[in-house]
Structures are given as C-alpha cells and as structure tokens.
Amino acid sequence: MDTNTKSRNRSDYCWNNIGTWADDTPSCPALKELVHCRNCDVFHAGAKTLLESPAPEGYLNEWTEELSSEKEQHVKLSEPVFVFRLEQEWLALPAHSVRNISRPVPIHRVPGKSDDTLLGLANIKGDIELCFSMKALIGVELHPGANGNDSGIFGERFVAIGTNEENWVFAVDEILDICRYRIDEDPGLPATVANSRPCYISSVFRYKNFTVGMLDEELITDTLKRRIS
Length: 229
Prior knowledge:
five-stranded mixed beta sheet; single chain; elongated; 7 helices; disordered N terminus; about 25% strand; alpha+beta
C-alpha cells in the first residue's frame, strides 16, 4: 500500500483509493488477508502520523471556545394548560379538559344536595349542568372586594370541565391564557395554597411573573362524583 500519509488530500491515502473507503470496489491485494484497512500497518502508521502532527492554525482556540461556552439546554415543555384566577391564586388545568367557557348565569339550588361546594344546576348554552365552587373545594382563601374585572374574556366566567357526557361547571374570577410551561422548573407551592389543601395541586410553574398551581383534574372530578353519589 502507498505509505505517503502526510498529505491532507483525500486521494493521497491508499485506503481511499484502493482500500475499504475507495469510491469504487476495493482493489488492494492485502485486503484478501486483512479484510479491512483498519487491520493494516500502513493505516496504523497514517493514524499515528495524524495524531503526532501539529494542530491546524486556530484549531485549539476554536475548541477552547467551544468547550468553555455555555451549552444551550433542551427545554421540555408541558402540554397546553388553561390558566385562570381564583381570588388571589393563579391556577391551571389541562387545556384538553376544558369543554366550554361562558358568561355567568343563575345557579338553581337542589334541595338536599346543594351546599358550599355543590352549588346546584345551571343552564349552560342550553344544557343543564352541575355547578360547584372550586374555591370551596380546594380551599382557596376568600378575599371580599378583591380586584376583578369584566373586560372581554378576561373577566369572571363559567368554565366547564369533564367529558362530552359529563361536565362540571365552576366560576373563575379571571382567565389569563392557554400556554405551555417548562416542566423542569418547580418554584414551590404558593404560601396561601400550601396552607389550604395542597393535595389538589400536583405541581407549580412560573408564567408571566405569576406562580401558577397545576390542579389535579382527576382528583377533582373523582371528589365531586363521590359527593353526589
């Protein structure tokens, strides 16, 4: 085989001309015994020469800069979530669980069933739905006269969650957004939520300078079903 391994031209290396990495069918007679160029002493000598050669100009500086620079981290985002406010707490539910949003309507109490949590029935867009107080269920502290508004979809609204066959409706003081959040960040439970019933909060995240508690939708609906059974 050709022993000239110092040239940087690809065609100067025998393993690229007549060897394993040749563009055409390998024709080196030594391959009948060696099978592959990596088993050849000429290939070993070429590798040794390459490793012992001085680094190209700027090579070390380039790698020094590359290794010292901060690596861009892959950000893992959640599924879309629906963010809303109850009193002074920002909370969220999976966006896929929200069936519809409507303006508040009168709630009619059900004798023997209605209480502070299960409020009664309401006509929501032509359907009779069960209404409950999310505030009472999860233990959000009430703040009479707290800031609220009624500007477009961001004011007080009724939100229906559940399935096509079974919806649960609750009132929210404000709707913020549908968003995704970084699931690798956990700023900890807000103090007011931590002091109430944190079992309904599965995680927390930051969004638009708010600390938002992610509600456990399955736990909420299971609790409501037990209440009416």
